[in-house]
Amino acid sequence: MTQRTAAAAPVEAPPGPRHRVHRAWFVAAVTFVTITGAAAFRSLPGLFIDPLHQEFGWSRGTIGAAVSINLALYGLTAPFAAALMDRFGIRRVVAAALTVIAIGSGLTVWMTAAWQLLLCWGLLVGLGTGSMALAFAATVTNRWFTERRGLVTGILTAASASGQLIFLPLLSWIVERHDWRPAAVTVSLTALAVVPFVWLLLRDHPADVGVAAYGAREFTPKPPPVTGAARRTLTVLSTSVRTGTFWLLAGAFAICGASTNGLVQTHFVPAEHDHGMPVTTAASLLAVIGVFDVVGTVASGWFTDRFEPRRLLAVYYALRGLSLLFLPMLLGPAVHPPMLFFIVFYGLDWVATVPPTMALCREQFGEDSAIVFGWVLASHQVGAALVAYLGGVARDVFGSYDVVWYAAGTLCAAAALMSLVVRRPVPAALAPAVP
Predict the structure, then answer these.
(1) Is the C-alpha dihedral spanning 236, 242, 246, 252 positive or negative?
(2) Measured between alpha carbons, how far is residue 238 from residues 1, 219, 246, 372 in Å?
(3) Which pLDDT band, with edges at 50, 70 and 90, does 229 fall under?
(4) Relative to the CA of 110, which of 337, 365, 389, 418 has its CA 20 to 30 Å away?
């Protein structure tokens, strides 16, 4: 485990005004709104595949490559962003990230070549959203809460689904009626609108407002900035990769990303469109997944506070894989009850894996858990990126997505087994004495 700059010892909390609602919940609310706003751009890939293919003649594989870069950077940026938040503060990093998203999304309206799609949609927006990935939620949770961490993790994770719920129907309507460019501008303006909200209301640490973390018995002064963010991020990686636990968590989470962001979020709308369903109807079904995603993720956070996270993960992955194996039989031109059942079920399971995965990172890696989770999230996005690209290639080669659904379902079964074999840490009282 890497050594961080030593924080000051806990002391008695300074006197101050007593609030009926702890300030940590206001910070969590600001974080929720921020992630929701950033999620707007992540609603677009499935809506843009067909319009870009028709306007520019780009293959679905080429468009999928831009999505892949975006998804990969979303994950690979996260651990460095978590370390940068320790160095420069949460507020500065998040405000800068939102600005980058706005620039990247806004520039897409002038693109005429595929490399510009890779630059704007892939690189810029990937860097921006990666800086506000779930490692951001983990950092806020670790700093501001010592109790209810599972619940808060579930709520903040659900923010991304809430963004999809809010923006996906609107953006699909804009694309259908007014072309894809106004939709890109809408996302850009939304990201910019959140910047002052973050700058004025978000705070880096409980000590900034003179309170202890929620559930803490003692007040902890704010630690000094941690320098060498990149070096620390890589050091944490070099330490964690020597453990089997890291590879099990990262491998299972890569499959999680492949079966959600990479496959369903990117390719569900065009797959339904292949079967004759209107784009707006398919996008609405994807938005319904977002509705139940909120419920499922918050419930998963509540379960994680009370039940063994390894078993929760195994159940989530197994059920997800089973549902994907049945999906090719459910696709069609109209909405029918079995498809609605799939949508509800998949929504409940979509990112329910996040709270127990974060809990295992905290259990296994302690104070470095936010950065470790950032690397685990990177594997999630690499898995998503691969399937976003390969799904488009499979559609070009085979003329359908069926083979991808079956492969993803099989991988989810493997993720369930990987989650079950994550070792429990040895209690300190039973650990061998260090000579």
Answers:
(1) positive
(2) 10, 33, 11, 10
(3) low
(4) 389
